[in-house]
Amino acid sequence: MFSHLLFGSPFVLTEGLYTGNLLFTAFCFIILMGLIKHFAWGPLSEMMDKRANKIANDINSAEKSRQEAEKLAAQREEALSKSQDDASAIVNRAKDTAKQQGEQIVNSARTDAQSIKNSAQKEIEQERKDALANTKDDVANLSIEIASKIIQKELKADDQKALIDSYIEGLGKQNAR
């Protein structure tokens, strides 16, 4: 009797297939599916969800890292451009400063040259004045000598002129030395 329950009823649906076996197999299949769902499917689904979340987080993290890398690259590019602009500005300032210093040096040299020229002209003028003063002294001495010779000897106008010319020639020769 029990064997009929376990292995099905004496009713045969088809030839060789018993209804009891079919029900027992279906019952075991349903219990097995419940056990699989409870012990295997739940943890497996949870593990797959965690893995899916981890992959999504990794993708988001990679995207954020890529965006940060692009941002850093843009900042570096901007800093490089700024440093190039700064370097260009420094070079331009250095050129301007060098140009100004060159102009100052040239102006200073011109001023010094003009000062030296003025000083030389003053010295020349002073030497000319000294030479004229010496000449005046020489002329005065000559005049005294001439006067003393005239006093010693009375001269005619032609003689006086010849005497003066000879003294002037003598004075020219003394100055030439």
Summarize the structure.
It is a single-pass membrane protein. The chain has helices spanning 2-6, 19-152, 157-176; strands at residues 12-14, 17-18.
- The whole-number mean of residue pLDDT values reads 82
Protein structure class: mainly alpha
Number of domains in the coordinates?
1
Largest sheet: 2 strands, antiparallel
What would you call the shape? rod-shaped
Rg of Cα set: 66 Å
Tally of helical runs = 3
Strand content: under 5%
**Helix fraction by DSSP (H/I, runs of at least 4):** over 70%
Order of helices and strands: HEEHH
Biggest β-sheet: strands ordered side by side in the sheet = 1-2
For the record, give the distance between the C-alpha atoms at the N and C termini, rounded to a whole number. 172 Å
- Detail the poorly predicted runs: 1-6, 8-13
For the secondary structure, the number of strands is 2
Biased composition (Basic and acidic residues): 69-85
Family: Belongs to the ATPase B chain family.
Protein name: ATP synthase subunit b
Subcellular location: Cell membrane; Endomembrane system
Describe the protein's architecture and organization:
The protein has one domain (2-176). Helices cover 90% and strands 3% of the residues. The chain has 3 helices and 2 strands. The protein has helices at 2-6, 19-152, 157-176; strands at residues 12-14, 17-18. Strands 1-2 form a two-stranded antiparallel sheet. Helix 2 (19-152) runs antiparallel to helix 3 (157-176). The protein is rod-shaped.
